[in-house]
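pipeline/complex-builder :: batch 7 item 3
reading input block
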Amino acid sequence: MVVTNPLKLLTVAALALPLTTIYASDEEATFQYGHYEDGARNLINAQSGFKPIQVDSIQTNTKLKLSDRVRLAFNYTQDTWSGATPITTAPLAFSGNRQRIIAPKILSGASPYLNNNNIFVDKNFNPLQQDSKTGEFTKNLQLVHTLSTASPETRKQGDLRFGYDWDEASLDIGAGTSAENDYNSSFGNIGGRLDFNQKLTSVNFGTSYTTSDTEAMLDHDAVPYIEKSTFGTRVKSLPNGVKLLIGSKQDWSGSLGVTQVLNKSTLVEGSVSYTASNGYMSNPYKTMAVLFVDPAQKIGKNGQLNGSMLAFLEQRPEERQQWTENLRYVQHIDALDAALHFDYRFYHDDWGIQAHTISSDWIQPLGDGWSITPRVRYYSQNAANFYSPYLVSKQAVSKSIYNPETDKTTTTKYDPKLLPQNYSSDYRLSGYGALSGGLTVTKKFAKGLELQAGAEYYTHAGSLKLGGGGEGNYSDFDGYLVNAALKVDLAALSIANSTHNEHANHVHHHGAGAPAGIMFDHVLPKAGDFMVGYRYQYADQAGGSMDSDDDKNVVNNACAPNKCYVTPQEMSMNMHMLDLMYAPTDWLTLMLMPQFMDMHMTMRPLDGAPETPSMTTPLGAAIIHAGHEHTTGGVGDTGMYALFNLFKTDAQQINLSLGMTAPTGDAAIQLRDTHRVDLGFIHYGMQLGSGTWDFKPAVTYTANIEDWSFGAQLNGTKRMESYNKAGFAFGDIFQATAWGSYSWTNWLATSVRGVYTLEGALRGAYRGVYHQIGSMDYGRNYGGQFFDVGFGINATMPSGSLQGNRLGFEWLQPIQDNDTYQLPRNGALSATWSYAF
Amino acid sequence: MSRFFNVKENLSTSFKKGAFFCLLFLSGCSSVSPWERGILAKSEMSLETAPLQNSLRTHQYGSREAASGGGQSGGGGCGCY
């Protein structure tokens, strides 16, 4: 079928565009990093000693076409967060945050005050503040949050979606799972689109099901102060004293929308959605302050009533129905070649919350691939009907009654049934408004590469609530979100590539390429060339002897002159790297490599270790805390390199790489306070970066003889500073490696490699609080000599729409470790994807 | 693909179908010929203005506001902080 009429050709092209996915590319790979951070909370009479909550996120999305009509999408998201958030609210008069005086500032302390058994209210149950010197009472309605902080935690989510396109319809089926240490969920969804009216009208529909399980260890600092009368069967006590809260939840959701083109520069979408949820929907770490005041007591001479403040786990309803109505309007402004987006959303649920959201974006293309998008958003909600900053229960917390007949005194506790069925003091359920504004800048390069960067400032305030009557300013806060993203349009790349087959030749010319674990082995052939790549590394260490004689050896020698109490049991690291290469001239290739990592570690007590000191001592608290899994995650160090070709013939070349890593990874991560003890820095190996500027040279030789390729590389890491800001520096590293690979076909090769690594011991030590409880806390136990052998497989797509994409995998198997007190290495996996254009 | 060779016929039948949906939006809609859709096909006219940033922003709003969850039928984890 040949369409010759240009008008018909254009018609065919335009009609092929589905309206609601008008510009989404069918084949793309994206990588995004985001950082969110709260501003400091207002604690009225104290300054928070905790860092506010901060979140580092990475996201990768890949969309591929398996055939003309079948689409496949894979998304991966990882968030790591740490820092302080409010766990409850209480009148300031009853003190909320333990104060720890660190001259010259008053800092909020190691743990929150959740209860107080000597509080005063007036006859109207308003909080009274007692002057500690004069004993006089004054009414004080000021509220304050109590903050609690968390050690780093990581959530990982992966989901997969298949889509099928008809000429005037599409169907998508997806499923995914999300895991964090206290909350796991799985979900499935199905959605579709039907086009009518020459695709001027589209109907969209979707439905999803989510099942979630909460398994939360209650904060050990807070547990002693939390009332257990409402725990019911939800909270289980484990033999080690841990209180574990267990809950499950199901959500069903459905949505229906219509998108309509109004004219050649305007379109509008209206949609409704409904979600029904049942199960455990409370936050296991939030508590409610309840003032117990016996109204029958004799009023004091200053008109005061005496009572107690206790903390209860919040109780949200176990059912929720949510409705939203959305309207989206898009108008092209021809005079400025810009687009105005206006969205309005009305939300209401059966918890009594109604919320309005208005947002507007202005997308302004600036030419040469640049565009800038300023945006504003306003959000307002009223409070849930069970929200209250604190509760007053008009009953005595306990009553003792003397019976003269039996000569016995019976004490009865408060009746928990007199409390409301549902209550929460979570500021997110209060009445407030939020205003935010931001900017996104996008640059599209030729050949399908796009970079985006954005920033948004967010401010939450009771006074911003629509119609007034919002929560007091004690709950106000602000925050900001920044992000950077890279998008590769694979379809555009393959079109660009099919017009000149140079790179396919280039790939062939260099044979199978180096194993996936090798970096710096190639340079870009000519000025103006780009390469984008993604590298992933996973390393695992575990096991070791469980023999008690070996344990005794570790206890007595690894921590000398002290004793070891615990030993690492398992440690794993995931590292995601972006590999961005650009050749400004024929003889120079520049390379930028941002890194994102997450690590986790478990420990076990050592046989024959000395008795653990009391958990109120710093050492005891640190040893007990070692029973928890430790996790860290976020941005790692950033590599910047210059690569040169030193020697080149048809079959051989030598490349030199000179560069360094900037200390962008946090090397001073601390554990949260526990049992009111400052646990200080986390183990050295769990830090996300070296903390020092590191010089990293490498020289690589490669040779190709028919179907065989050979290579060898020497590389090193020289720490450019004696110590980082935290007080230590990792050892220098020297590595020598050599490999051989054989190409079985024009697209598949396998490799074998040997690696020798020499690493120096860690120098210096943390400046500040840290507790040495095991071998990993002593710098001399780091470094050594290591031998590994690697087995790799490389695939190069020789043709088709993914032509020029390269995939590589390599497993590094440890052959010999040194004899220091280190966790044995199980091996490491490297995976790479790259595309040169 | 054969439908594209009967553009006139399809336009009239689809118009009837579309008229119903046009009524939903009281402004009423004029027919936009396929060759007039150049502006609608521009990236800035896409309903999702910045899908990447939006996924982070939505997650942040969801962690800070009560009216989260509704509005999409996707599902997902908590990541609440």
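note: The radius of gyration of chain A is 31 Å.
queue -> next item
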